[in-house]
Amino acid sequence: MSFLGLQPHVTREQLRERLVAFSAGGDNRITDLSFGYRTRLGTGWDVPAGVLHAPASACTYEPQAASDVLCMCESWSNNREVPDELLWKDVPADRVGDYEYILDLLDWEANVDPDFVANRRLVPYETAESVAGDPRWVEKWIVYRSPTFSAKELTVEPGATVTVRDTDAHGVIVVQGHGSFGPHPAAAATLIRFGRLTEDEFFVSEDAARRGVRITNHSTVEPLVLLKHFAAGRVSPTA
Q1: N or C: which end of the chain has fewer CB within 10 A?
Q2: Quick check: pTM over 0.85?
């Protein structure tokens, strides 16, 4: 279960009361002011800076824009008490104890948006190139609501070799399977030993992306799955 944003009727004063309760010890129950959403593997959420969020305890893929502020507003997380200093971590020294300053960090309209699900839910959908119908690979937009970054999931079927083109430079993480990525061996990291390199991360320049990257899945039974993240945002008009 993930708790995201605030219920539309929540007031600034109600949230302030929960922040004040942070220092009292125990659970300030700030998630009572939110909606809880069941975890659905393969889907996600667009969570801009200033939106309260308590993600479920699952392994997540999180492309992020740069941010210079961390503020933990929940006093109890994963069955452990959150130390008080995390509430005030990036607050100027002369504003520590000022709950109005914390409230001003929030994007209030985004938090209480009555259409939060429609505006923030990320349900994957196939790229135009994938829809063309080559059975050897499937590519989906998985992050597409942010104006500053986006991401795709590429799946190459067992034994297949494909050439995939993009218009922009991007980073790549291999999350399942093994094969080759351009001239390089590629494999999901299952055991990382201290001081050893892995074969699961790549960077593709704009020129190489436009020429196309040749990808081969060396397995006869397991898909090769890659996550591709871009600096350019994609706000989808169809999703």
Answers
A1: N
A2: yes
